[in-house]
Automatic annotation (TrEMBL), chain A:
Keywords: Signal. InterPro entries: Iontro_rcpt_C, Solute-binding_3/MltF_N. It comes from Siculibacillus lacustris. GO terms for molecular function: ligand-gated monoatomic ion channel activity. It comes from the Bacteria. Residues 40-265 form the Solute-binding protein family 3/N-terminal domain. The keyword Signal applies. Gene3D superfamilies: Periplasmic binding protein-like II. Residues 40-264 form the Ionotropic glutamate receptor C-terminal domain. This is Transporter substrate-binding domain-containing protein. GO terms for cellular component: membrane.
From TrEMBL, chain B:
It holds the Pfam family BPD_transp_1. Belongs to the binding-protein-dependent transport system permease family. HisMQ subfamily. GO terms for cellular component: ATP-binding cassette (ABC) transporter complex. Residues 20-214 form the ABC transmembrane type-1 domain. Its main location: membrane. PANTHER family: L-CYSTINE TRANSPORT SYSTEM PERMEASE PROTEIN TCYL, MEMBRANE COMPONENT OF AMINO ACID ABC TRANSPORTER. The chain crosses the membrane at residues 20-44, 154-178, 198-217. This is Amino acid ABC transporter permease. GO terms for biological process: amino acid transport. The keyword Cell membrane applies. InterPro entries: AA_ABC_transptr_permease_3TM (IPR010065), ArtM/GltK/GlnP/TcyL/YhdX-like (IPR043429), MetI-like (IPR000515), MetI-like_sf (IPR035906).
TrEMBL record, chain C:
It is a multi-pass membrane protein. Its main location: membrane. CDD domains: TM_PBP2. It is found in: Cell inner membrane; Cell membrane. The keyword Signal does not apply. It holds the Pfam family BPD_transp_1. Keywords: Amino-acid transport, Cell membrane, Membrane, Transmembrane, Transmembrane helix, Transport. GO terms for cellular component: ATP-binding cassette (ABC) transporter complex. Residues 9-201 form the ABC transmembrane type-1 domain. This is Amino acid ABC transporter permease. PANTHER family: L-CYSTINE TRANSPORT SYSTEM PERMEASE PROTEIN TCYL (PTHR30614:SF0), MEMBRANE COMPONENT OF AMINO ACID ABC TRANSPORTER (PTHR30614).
Length: 277, 232, 213
């Protein structure tokens, strides 16, 4: 290698490593003030998580869209959606691409070390989705030796991996960019089961007609919440969102939204302090 | 920097290495099979009957006119719905991501390589072929002794460029969950909240591979161009 | 597959066209600057130009887009999705177009430039009247292919949150479980757009040749 090349390379290496280790720039302004001033709350999400966020006939719809419309009304701002692949959503929150994540994400101890969470919006406990009429799977443990799958960088995936590790015969656990790809593979017969949270797969089973939910659930009881930035600038915004959600819950709007997307109303705790996971 | 080296040991290191190996396998196998497919296509178009030429031309244009990602989606997600019914039994094109990746790269590369070879055929002076026929070489001998060596020299630089494009396209396959380099590094970056570092390192690794490939190509060109003097 | 779905794809292809066109335009401007720097003969500008070209030709666009979207905020440049997509596509195409332009300028016959010089044309006039038109004429076919490449590459910008034709196709495929007709239709739309671009390229080549028999 000649000298010029060496210089170029070390320059490039130095610049990129230097950039990647720089501390994030400190935003001095309070985010809630900025949001109100701009009149826009930027919400990041992934649109492969029916019934929370999904694309129906080319339009982004779901529980989150309805709920954030209400939150927007409470805060007096418009909602701007930014849709990324799931493994880009939390990085996007950290990079300041949006003010809050609609996700939703399972509330876990590890995530609480790094993020704040809104009040829980639904139970997130995980179960198995199988192809309709597949008699070989009647309980979660029946996936022994079969190929299964879940979305990349999700809690549901790691719970599935934990379950499979405990089984006598271990089938392959595939990781997908989004849950829709996993459902597509289930429909195509590449995998025998998808693990996802009960509200999600109940909705998918009901709307697609091609799948069935396998009960009971497995793994610990968990809840979904909206991930939020944990730094000082976001404290006021996070509080305002929690207050808005409390109001939406108390006056029955939340119940209506739940009924619309899940077919039933249900209660969730006001806060998750000690997640089971 | 020391924290980065920490990833190279243990399970993470093995996963990254397997991703790198998969990337290289996809790249090399895709390029080789693509070269074969492209050459056969170019030969069939040149020596085959007219309708074959038209049909293949249409295929090549379709493949070159659509994004690789759409082709990968079509193969991977559409494949299982592409079934062949044969007397009651039906076989569907249900490929796993890696197989779909290899097949997709081969077809994509084949289309581009066939155009390179076609241009290569056209660029060989007619006189050389006529001369070969005059000295009594048959069609096969002419192809092997005259056309192929001359064409290799003509198309080599373009082939190196194309194979670099292919290396970069392999990263797209992470979207259909092929466990190549980007897929594996992404998982670790996401788990440890080190996504920016992960992307930076990925960029540097691909850059190094591409530079190496370019250098190897220029070296091969220099070696081959010695033969060019022999008959210019 | 219904016409309604097909129409949604056609609508989404509008964004594919807009992002590609804007990026090709900015990419060309940037490429002209890079090419100028590279051919200037001054190492201080030529070296960064070459490094830029080497990096953006040497790394997958998918990763460039992610770097622009997630790395830039670390240095205080928090660009929204749309801007990140345009930057990624323009930088990528600029690196290719710069090489194409360089090839074009280097292929301008020496004799023509010398002749212009002898006729007393200034360096500026030689550039504007002789070298630039010849170089553009020589590079038009390659620039057309590059435009088609970028149209196809725009299928990746969904990783930074922009919904275009390919993403729309994927969303529709997964909500209707009809991947085959939907992805085939998306491919068909790309093909039509690219045939139009190729046609425009040929037309441009023909008009550039006029008067240069």
């Amino acid at each position: 290698m000649n000298r010029r090349v060496l210089i170029n390379w070390s320059l490039a290496l130095g610049v990129s490593l230097g950039l990647s280790t720089l501390a994030p720039k400190v935003a001095s302004a309070d985010v809630l003030d900025a949001v109100k001033k701009a009149g826009v709350l930027k919400v990041g999400t992934e649109t492969e998580f029916a019934p929370f966020d999904f694309i129906d006939k080319g339009k982004h719809v779901g529980l989150n869209v309805d709920l954030f419309d209400e939150i927007g009304k409470e805060l007096g701002v418009k909602i701007e959606w930014i849709a990324l692949p799931w493994d880009g959503v939390l990085p996007g929150l950290e990079s300041g691409k949006f003010d809050i994540v609609a996700g939703p994400a399972t509330i876990t101890k590890k995530r609480l070390e790094r993020y704040k969470f809104s009040p829980p919006i639904a139970e997130a406990t995980v179960a198995i989705l199988k192809k309709k009429g597949d008699a070989s799977i009647t309980k979660p443990e029946d996936i022994a030796g079969k190929a299964t799958g879940a979305g990349k960088a999700t809690v549901q995936l790691s719970l599935l991996q934990d379950l499979v590790k405990k089984l006598p015969k271990q089938g392959e656990v595939k990781e997908y960019v989004g849950f829709n790809e996993a459902y597509a593979d289930l429909a195509a017969g590449r995998i025998a089961a998808v693990a996802n949270s009960l509200p999600n797969i109940a909705f998918v089973a009901q709307t697609s007609g091609a799948f069935e939910v396998v009960l009971p659930t497995f793994g610990p009881k968990t809840y979904f919440g909206f991930p939020e930035n944990a730094d000082a600038e976001h404290v006021k915004l996070n509080e305002a969102v929690a207050v808005a959600m409390g109001k939406i819950k108390a006056d029955g709007r939340m119940g209506k939204i739940q009924k619309k997307w899940f077919g039933v109303e249900f209660d969730t705790p006001a806060e998750v302090k000690e997640p089971s996971l | 920097m020391t924290s980065l080296l920490g990833y190279l040991g243990g399970e993470d290191g093995r996963n990254i290495l397997s991703g790198l190996v998969n990337t290289c396998v996809l790249w090399v196998v895709g390029t080789l099979l693509g070269t074969v497919l492209g050459f056969l296509t170019a030969v069939a178009r040149r020596y085959g009957p007219r309708p074959i030429d038209w049909l293949l031309k249409a295929c090549v244009e379709v493949i070159r006119g659509t994004p690789f990602l759409v082709q990968a989606y079509l193969l991977y997600f559409g494949g299982p719905y592409l079934c062949l019914e044969l007397g009651g039994a039906s076989a569907c094109l249900t490929l796993d991501p890696f197989e779909a990746g290899i097949l997709g790269l081969t077809i994509y590369a084949g289309a581009y390589f066939s155009e390179l070879f076609r241009a290569g055929f056209d660029a060989i002076p007619r006189g050389h072929i006529e001369a070969a026929t005059t000295v009594g070489l048959d069609r096969w001998q002419t192809l092997r002794r005259i056309i192929l060596p001359e064409m290799t020299m003509l198309v080599l630089p373009a082939m190196v460029n194309m194979s670099i494009l292919l290396l970069k396209e392999t990263a797209v396959l992470s979207i259909i969950s092929v466990k190549e380099l980007k897929f594996q590094v992404d998982i670790i970056g996401n788990r440890d909240y080190a996504f920016v570092e992960a992307f930076t390192i990925l960029a540097l690794v691909y850059w190094a591979l591409v530079e190496l490939c370019g250098r190897a190509g220029r070296y091969a060109e220099a070696r081959l161009s010695r033969y060019r003097f022999a008959h210019s | 597959m219904s016409w309604e779905l097909f129409w949604l794809l056609v609508e989404a292809s509008g964004l594919t066209i807009v992002y590609s066109a804007v990026s090709i335009f900015f990419g060309f401007l940037l490429a002209a600057a890079i090419c100028g720097a590279d051919l200037s003969g001054r190492a201080a500008v030529a070296r960064p130009a070459r490094l830029f070209v080497s990096f953006f030709r040497g790394t997958p666009l998918l990763i460039q887009l992610l770097l622009i979207y997630y790395l830039l905020p670390k240095i205080g440049l928090n660009v929204p999705s749309e801007v990140a997509a345009v930057i990624g596509l323009s930088f990528s195409t600029a690196s290719y177009q710069a090489e194409i332009l360089r090839g074009g300028f280097q292929s301008v016959p020496r004799g023509v430039v010398e002749a212009a010089d002898m006729c007393g044309l200034s360096a500026r006039a030689t550039f504007r009247r002789i070298r630039l038109p010849i170089a553009v004429r020589l590079t038009l076919p390659a620039l057309t292919s590059e435009a088609i490449m970028i149209l196809k590459s725009s299928s990746l910008i969904s990783v930074v949150g922009v919904v275009e034709l390919t993403t729309m196709a994927k969303d529709l495929a997964s909500s209707t479980y009809q991947p085959l007709p939907i992805f085939a239709s998306a491919g068909f739309i790309y093909l039509v757009i690219n045939l139009v671009v190729a046609g425009l390229g040929l037309w441009a080549e023909r008009s550039a040749r006029r008067g240069h028999a």
